[in-house]
Amino acid sequence: INTALSKISQWRSIGIKLPISVNISAYQLQQANFTTRLAALLAAHPKVKTHYLELEILETSVLSDISQVFDTMSACHDLGVHFALDDFGTGYSSLTHIKRLPAYLIKIDQSFVRDMLEDADDLAIVESVIGLAKTFKREVIAEGVETIEHGVALLRLGCELAQGYGIARPMPADDIPEWVSSWKADDSWQA
């Protein structure tokens, strides 16, 4: 988290305003001092607007005490930090998590997105997760957008956020400024 906050601060100083997501485990989130440690890290980076930090909970993680996790997430939300449920649709208690946890973003697992253009069942799952996210007033992002066609199909389904090789390959953080200055969405995504 400290590295992410430093990078957000560095990017902000050169005019780039991008959020950074950090994966956290259920174990970390269930630590009694998680919010206190997070608050100290945020205080050490006073120029960083806290909404630029997003914490992603792996949906497949077993959350043994959902009430305590809710309280921790709410306290972090009060600090201005938002949460996402990662790899949604796989693992444990998906519907319980979307109902009970204050995560603003649902990330559709790439295993469904990858084959959605050829597999009617995967397409139905993607479409259902998008509908579920909208019903619960959550943002939704699709992982595994490998092609322009994936992006077009997702836009038609109402999913406007995506990540995957069709947008950019993983890259070192120091390469982000150049990528931001030169990247342009495909024309078919603009319509």
What is the compact description of this entry?
With 191 residues, the protein is of the alpha/beta class. Helix content is 46%, strand content 15%. The chain has ten helices and six strands, in the order H-E-H-H-E-H-E-H-E-H-H-E-H-E-H-H.
3D architecture notes:
By secondary structure, this protein is of the alpha/beta class. It has helices spanning 2-13, 26-29, 34-43, 66-78, 94-100, 110-113, 120-135, 148-157, 176-182, 187-190; strands at 20-24, 53-58, 82-88, 105-108, 139-142, 161-162. A six-stranded parallel sheet has the order 1-2-3-4-5-6. Helix 3 runs parallel beside helix 4 (66-78). The protein is flat, with a radius of gyration of 17 Å.
